[in-house]
Amino acid sequence: KESRWRRDDPPNRNVVYIEIQRTVPASELTKFRKFLSGNEQKAELTELSQDTIKYATAILDKDISHYRVASLSDSDTRMYVGRSGEKNYSQFHFGAGEASIIATVDRIETSGDNSLILIEEIENGLHPVAVRLMINYLENVARRKRHQIIFTTHSQDAIDQLPAEAI
Fold it and tell me: How high is the pLDDT of residue 142?
């Protein structure tokens, strides 16, 4: 009886921590300095996954199929790049909510099934409608990819979207 909470052999599980820094302007984050350094290294642009495009577009109510991911060869930092007409623009010019949703959805969609997803202050930088849509997405992805998702919030809009057993 004394050892009912003891786990000598815990399951190996992917843990994804999505910190509140996702809503800080990109120009204020140390991890993005290499993109600003002006060195000769070029960022490689790759496509977003189709699931990231599908779900982030639904939450944002904005087509992001033309967005890309920029990454440097010596870093695991990812920066998102949008497109308006013929011009690309970087995450430095995204709104906080747009950057947060794209980065969060991308991290979740590219994580392995059955991951533990921890999200700090889910509502930070988001409009109340976007908060509700994000919570709907989290419920969907939890079922679809068998994730366990835990988030902190001060938003009643987020809480109101959840079934009682999820709070």
Answer: 96
Residue 131 in tokens: 């908060």
- Indicate the residue type of 10: P
Which percentage of the chain shows pLDDT scores above 70? 92
Smallest CA-to-CA distance from 69 within 89, 47, 90 is with 47
Predicted confidence at residue 131, as pLDDT, reads 96
Cα 71 vs. chain centroid, distance in angstroms? 16
Pairing of strands 15-18, 116-119: parallel
Report helix angle 50-60 to 128-145, nearest 10: 150
State the pTM of this model: 0.85
